[in-house]
Write a structure and sequence with these properties.
InterPro entries: Acyl_CoA_acyltransferase (IPR016181), GNAT_dom (IPR000182), Trichothecene_AcTrans (IPR052523). Pfam families: Acetyltransf_1. This is GNAT family N-acetyltransferase. One of its GO terms (molecular function) is acyltransferase activity. Its EC number is 2.3.-.-. By secondary structure, the protein is of the alpha+beta class. The chain has one domain: Aminopeptidase. 43% of the residues lie in helices and 21% in strands. A seven-stranded mixed sheet has the order 1-2-3-4-5-7-6. α1 crosses α3. It is globular and about 45 Å long.
Length: 203
Amino acid sequence: MPSDAAVRPAEIADVPRAARTLRRAFADNVFTRHVIAADDHLRRLEEFQELFVARIGLPHGRVWVAGDVEAVSVWTTPETGPEIFAELASRFAELAGDRLAAYETAETAMAAHRPRGPVWFLGVVGVDPARQGSGLGRAVIRPGLEAAERDGVPAFLETSEARNVAFYERLGFEVTAEYPLPLGGLTTWSMIRRPRRGSVLPP
């Protein structure tokens, strides 16, 4: 497993590599396939991830990278305002293409299960397929969990990949909702990690 020293806050110069890493990591992801058009899908996916890193995570949240930007985590924080997403809504809609209805109904369905109070939200995390299983994913998530602990607020995430649920449970998350998304019935899990007040995070 990589050491914590391999993880650092992202910089603007990291954005292109971060977007490429997330594109490779999510190339066959069931959720992004559900909400982003199949036409020119990988280009759309990379632009979608680049927007999230460059326009949301870096200026209004936190982004951590590990290795040679082979792993990326993008978080919003209790201070991240909803107006940021509203400003980018039209661009995300363009990238969704003919999956726009799926994208919009998925967002509505997921919003019903999100925490109402302050939260650190793990919006996206991905590891280059060549490095998956090496511990980079856990390493790049850890700073956000530590930040949530310091703030005394929950960490939250959503996943539509069943195999990810056990991984996040090992990091202290618990499932708060399991539900189908409209227009296809894709199962999604909402997961929360409540602050432990000084407990040691998993290594």
